[in-house]
Amino acid sequence: MSKMNPKSIAMTAEHRKILQNNTVTIVKNLMFSEEFVSVLMRDGILTPEEKERIEAEKTRSDKSRYLIMDTLPRRSDAAYPAFIEALVESRQDSLAEEIDSTLASKFIEDRDKNDEKIQLQRPVKVSEASVDFVWKPYHLDESKTWYCKLFESNIKDLGIELCKMTPDRKKNIEEMMDKKKVYRIIRHNDGFFGRAVIISNQFYTNMNPRPGSDIDCENLVKLFDQLNFRTVVHKELMGKEIKKFLEEERNNEEHLQYSLFVLCILAHGNNNKVYGIDGNDENGNDGAIDISDITSWFSGVQCPGLAGKPKLFFIQACQGGKVMLSVSPKQRNSDRPFSTAVASGDVRNAVTLHPDGNPDYTDSLPLNIPEAADLLIAYSTAPGYISWRHPEYGSWFIRCLIYVILNNAYEEHVFDMLTEVSRIISHFKLKEGNIYAVQVPQVVSTLTKKVFFMS
């Protein structure tokens, strides 16, 4: 879209009405990512001064209200399509389609064509191994229908709402806090309990893209909004940009006022590392960051504002290239014709699911356990193994994590909820003959108390 004078030709009454009718939905779901803001600035809809004015608002909801009620309606009619385009460019497709499905579909089609063109121009790092067979989803029996729905759906389409905290349960948790058996989680006067940071990398310069990461990111934002976290999202960061951003986050003074911190990283990974979008290549460029380095940056020593407070890290990334296998009882003691090929990383992509890492890695190495207290790291998969992700529904791990938290946030503490996540994921399988590909998350914890979300 070409840059236009924002004050020429007032926005039509029809477009103002559409924005007005969707104000509640927009305020609830809009994510102010860098991509979103940059499109509005590129098209002349936002000035640098207005950008600063919006960023000065304390909450994401306030930012959304200021944009929708005070800024866009005062612009030209070009502001309306620019707003829809900004949503699409920042991967907020669901919100764009809910506001204007026709216009959103056009922008989504244009974006996807451009993404394909860019991907064809990128030097994709491929494995020397070839795919000799196709993995197919394993459908569970009818007695476990709800597992099937979660396995074959985007979590947001299941209509699950966040559970409610009863007065008795709240009193019980507060009593445990007084006895120092539970971390003290209190609401700050701005309405938030903590900060939730999400880093989502979907498109890489020298590794395969990660379709479905945008779904995971969108669903996580909605979850943490409901849990009353101040949520921050960053997408498509190079390795050095991740380090720079986390350095700034570590020094954020808001940690002094909040009770806990959550960091979610959705990226390619390998052997206790996650990759920026620059990945790694034959020229020696390395966008990898050690997960142990990331967790240490938020220890009580390096981040005093979080000293004595729980710090939760959720890592959706492969930790190697092996496919975790489960064998049917009939074949448990027989030969396993696919095990050598699969374990060596021959399976690059499933027909409906994709691995979240570098399939060339085959060795299983132990993860570094952080020495600092009050940390919990939940890896989507065990060391050395692939982590599965559906391009339309999102990853197994993030999908199950959100499902369990929505149902149990105020009844179970975090560690028990992660055990339930593992139990559910154990029912997810990909099938080839009598061989089943599975996934099991791994949790590393130095928490000294229980962590409950509060209402």
Explain what you see:
By secondary structure, this protein is an alpha/beta fold. The protein contains 16 helices and 15 strands. Strands 3-2-4-7-10-15 form a six-stranded mixed β-sheet, covered by helices on one side. It has a four-stranded antiparallel β-sheet with strand order 1-13-14-8, with no helix packed on it. The chain has a three-stranded antiparallel β-sheet with strand order 9-11-12. The protein is globular. The chain starts with 12 loop residues before the first helix and ends in a 10-residue tail after the last strand.
Layout of helices and strands:
Layout: H1 13-21, H2 23-29, H3 34-42, H4 48-55, H5 60-71, H6 79-89, H7 93-99, H8 101-121, E1 136-137, H9 145-151, H10 167-178, E2 194-200, H11 213-226, E3 229-235, H12 239-250, E4 260-266, E5 273-280, E6 286-290, H13 291-297, E7 311-316, E8 324-327, H14 339-343, E9 354-355, E10 375-379, E11 388-390, E12 394-395, H15 396-408, H16 414-425, E13 430-432, E14 435-438, E15 442-445
Parallel strand pairs: 2-3, 2-4, 4-7, 7-10
Antiparallel strand pairs: 1-13, 5-6, 8-14, 9-11, 10-15, 11-12, 13-14
Helix pairs in contact: 2-5, 3-6, 6-7, 6-8, 7-8, 11-15, 15-16
